[in-house]
Amino acid sequence: MNLNVIIEIITALFLLLGTSLALLSAIGILRLPDIYTRSHAGTKSATLGVLCTLMGTFIFFAGTEQFISIRLLLGILFVFLTAPVAGHLLCRAAYHSDVAMSNRSVLNELKNVIHVKKEK
């Protein structure tokens, strides 16, 4: 086995993992009951799926073409920083707007903290 074959196998594994996580994220968004749990599926697994896909692409071009793409690195950094923060802020805005949680939710840790502050 030469180096190009090993790089292609690693790239294929990253791409397969990324697409699997993106599919899992889509299923989670469709199946989960409320915005809070859907946001978790949409931000965590989708972010990891995109990161694996971009990392596989980066490894392929760096290993086979000896081309280091700054755009791919910036894309990885941008997705890694913005997607979880956006999901957190959407859930926070939904909570402040009194969007109801699913009846299957068992724990509301913000109830005592946020509603106490609203009353003051």
Task: Please render the helix and strand layout as text.
Elements: H1 3-31, H2 35-64, H3 70-96, H4 111-119
Question: Spans of 5+ residues with little confidence (pLDDT < 50)?
Answer: none
Distance between the termini: 69 Å
Strand content: under 5%
Overall spatial form? elongated
The total strand number stands at 0
Count of structural domains: 1
What is the N-to-C order of secondary-structure elements (H for helix, E for strand)?
HHHH
For the sheet with most strands, the description reads: none
Q: Structural class given helices, strands, pairing?
A: mainly alpha
**Mean pLDDT, all residues:** 89
In DSSP terms (H or I, runs of 4 or more residues), the helix count works out at 4
Query: What is the assembly state of the chains in this entry?
Result: single chain
Evaluate the radius of gyration: 19 Å
| Proportion of residues in helical segments | over 70%
Quick summary:
The chain is mainly α and 120 residues long. The chain is built from four helices and no strands. The chain has one domain.
